[in-house]
Amino acid sequence: MADGITPILMEALKDIGIDLSQENYHSLEVYAELLREKNKVMNLTNIVDDEGVAIRHFADSLTLLPYIAAEQAKQKRKKLSIIDVGTGAGFPGVPLKIAVPDIDLTLMDSLQKRLNFLNEVAGELKFDTYRTLHSRAEDAGKDKKTREQYDIATARAVASLPVLCEYCLPFVKVGGVFLAMKGHSEDEVAASGKAIAVLGGKIEKVDEFMLPGTDMNRSIVVVRKTKHTPPQYPRQAGKPTKNPIS
Fold first, then answer.
1. Residue 246 scores a pLDDT above 90
2. pLDDT, tens digit (0-9, with 9 covering 90-100), for 170-208
3. 135 pLDDT higher than 70
4. Do residues 95 and 62 make contact, with C-beta atoms less than 8 angstroms apart?
5. pLDDT, tens digit, for every residue of 110-119?
6. What is the DSSP secondary structure assignment for residue 127, as one 8-state letter?
7. CA distance 103 to 111
8. Does residue 231 have a cis peptide bond before it, meaning omega lies within 30 degrees of 0?
9. What count of other Cβ atoms lies within 10 Å of the Cβ of residue 174?
10. Which listed residue, 43, 48, 114, 149, has the most CB atoms within 10 A of its CB?
11. Interstrand relation of 81-85 and 150-156 (parallel, antiparallel or unpaired)
12. Looking at residue 157, what is its pLDDT?
């Protein structure tokens, strides 16, 4: 492969203090190529140029690495279970798995075609401790096989924070954490207090920064799970979006 995404991504990650191995970069190049090829026959992303993939997909996803490292230190173990809710083309889950092979990753999406692609990626990159889950968050969040089974839930989604919390907090074990990836989040954080409390969480911190190499605002909202989510949540499909907890 030519220069590809690696030089752009290396520069971006240097700005935020993240260091990857050459093997990591090679795996990310392979993933980028698979993404572009599959995107010719199905709509996975409208961002396929080197800079867009490097910055807006990979660097953005990898901003979670310090939070995963902090959880590994807190739990005193490397093999944390992580669910990426509404993973789409695999963001942030696949870049995180490439960078931290120890994690036990579940990629959940409501579209099987996307998961078929992600299984191809996993096979090509020889992932272990990895699975795909074909489900809506509202259904999987009620299933005893997945409810409160994960150390970390994350989502890089357009839903508002109160809605995202209803989708994601039911997956998190008590003591675990939900890492919400947002743009500018001040208003959403202010509006999410009741939802987070009802669902058994507490905002631990909110970090705001600019995505390296862009003028795009990013936030990571760290929501600690402090008690069990009440059994009526998540509500059935459509309810969280139409009538957020407030």
1. no
2. 999 999 999 999 998 888 999 999 999 999 999 999 999
3. yes
4. yes
5. 999 999 999 9
6. -
7. 23
8. no
9. 12
10. 114
11. parallel
12. 78
Spatial contact of 93 and 125, defined as CB atoms under 8 Å apart: no
Question: Which pLDDT tens digit goes with each residue over 214-232?
Answer: 999 999 999 999 999 999 9
Spatial distance between the Cα atoms of 32 and 139, rounded to a whole number of angstroms: 31
HSE, CB side, 13 Å, CA atoms: give it for residue 79. 4
Q: Among all chains, which residue has been given the structure tokens 């299933």?
A: 143
- Cα 115 to Cα 117: distance, rounded to the nearest angstrom: 5
49 vs 54, 137, 149, CA distance in Å? 8, 30, 37
Name 111's Cβ contacts closer than 8 Å, sequence gap at least 6: none
Contact criterion met (CB below 8 Å) for 174 and 200: yes
Is-contact 59 9, C-beta < 8 A?
A: yes
Q: Which amino acid is at 22?
A: Q
Residue 145: which residues within 8 A CB-CB, separation 6 or more?
A: none
| Predicted local distance difference test score (pLDDT) of residue 207 | 96
Q: Which two tokens stand for residue 204?
A: 């631990």
Question: Is the bond preceding 92 in cis, omega lying within 30 degrees of 0?
Answer: yes
**Taking residues 85-89, what's their average pLDDT?**
97
Under 8 Å CB-to-CB from 8, ≥6 apart: which residues? 50, 51, 54, 55, 213
**pTM exceeds 0.85:** yes
Residue 158 region by backbone torsions, left for phi larger than 0, else alpha for psi between -120 and 50, else beta = alpha
On the question of pLDDT at 235 being above 80, the answer is yes
Q: Which residues of 47-74 are buried (b: 16+ CB within 10 A; e: fewer)?
A: eeebeebbbbbbbbbbbbbebbeebbee
